[in-house]
Amino acid sequence: MSVADLFQAELKAVNLGLESFADNLRQRGVSVVQMDWRPPAGGNIAMIAALDRLALNPKIDIEAANAKAVQRMLKGKPMLVGVGIAKDVVPGMRPDLILHSGPPITWARMAGPMRGAVIGGLLYEGLAKTREEAEALAASGKITFEPCHHHGSVGPMAGIMTSKMPVWIFQNETYGNYSYATFNEGLGKVLRYGAFSAEVLDRLKWMETDLAPVMKKVLAAHGPVDMRGILAQVLQMGDEGHNRNRAGTSLMIREFAPYLVMLDEPKEKIAKILSFLHANDHFFLNLSMPACKCVVDAAAGIEGSTVITTMARNGTDFGIRLSGLGDQWFTGPAGIVEGLYLPGYTAADAAPDIGDSVITETAGIGGFAMAAAPAIVQFVGGVPQDAINFTKAMYEITLAESDFYKIPILDFRGTPTAIDVRLVVEKSILPVINTGIAHKEPGVGMVGAGLVKPPENCFQDALAAFAEEYTAT
Prior knowledge:
The protein has helices at about 5-10, 20-25, 45-55, 60-75, 85-90, 110-125, 130-140, 200-220, 225-235, 245-260, 265-280, 285-295, 360-365, 375-380, 385-395, 420-425, 455-470, and strands at about 10-15, 30-35, 80-85, 95-100, 145, 165-170, 180, 225, 310-315, 315-320, 330-335, 340, 355, 400-405, 415-420, 435-440, 445-450. By secondary structure, it is of the alpha+beta class.
């Protein structure tokens, strides 16, 4: 075709970027194909330079390192192996130490729900008798605060773990590492949402004196529970392993019940435990979280890997860690959750995003598997198609698809697994997270649930630090 023919033929255009340019052409009768294109890293020159340095001149084979991290995540087999008391089994646990969710934080910077949970933890431990005594002790410097993640543990919402609390014990059968989590209290007025009333403390004591010892006997009789198999099933049954846990809790009741009823315990005690499990759909959350933790931890500490091995929030900061940068945290401000509120509450009551439960998304379930749980939108907001779209978007920032966790509505495609910080920054696609909402004031509790976006800067900062570490001469 000659140049003259080109100008005489019907004009057809391909538009990149802003669709408004295509709209102008359509209004003039021009046929336009709109291409959904954005510049790498949103046009951020510093991030583009970091990505280029890693692509052109790394000191290590990043792809090989990531392949190793991915292999460890895909092959990890989390097993529920026991029940213990935190001070006896959690590495480094002691009476004057309180573990919390998210990256490191001081009492002075803690958000309301975490302060409330700390108060409750000190009252539960008997280290304080009143709220005022607990607050004074927390501010005195006599109590040490450290992230659950620094002790092989995870905790939902405030994530508070104290020395006397009973914990689940998990082991990664493939790689041998352990993880831990407290027992789930249910919804509403509970410690993890910052409540510390008498009913909260009474429930915690009952869990310590009745529930945990019985569950320890149940597990001893049952033997280790294959949580990878359970998680695979819950995705087939409408859960996503983070905020929808009805199927998971039901499956655990089926696992435990035959052994529970055979124990030489008063029938009233057994009945109360079964009733508690039945009424607490989120009982499974404190099992799915450590299951994910021990799998992801096996992929940590791999030199040259850009895989994200931790995402966590403490109500003030959102933080991430990369496999290839060890224990270094990269943080940004915790966001406000957009979602549905319980009657009587609004967004004005909400605390910023909080909790270690985003370990589920880090491992490739939770928000990354929302397509398997379309009914979750009744809890966090939106419509079923949103759940499918969220999962599809996460394939853009991950390196693999799970061999075990499959999504029926996507033709049993494996869940998106192993977040690569390079892809997050390059494509400007942030991880999808669904979560609960705590009241901003200490002592109130849960007020809703929804979706939240992590701060972009922590991913950018992590990429910049990684590029500095692995390309500097």
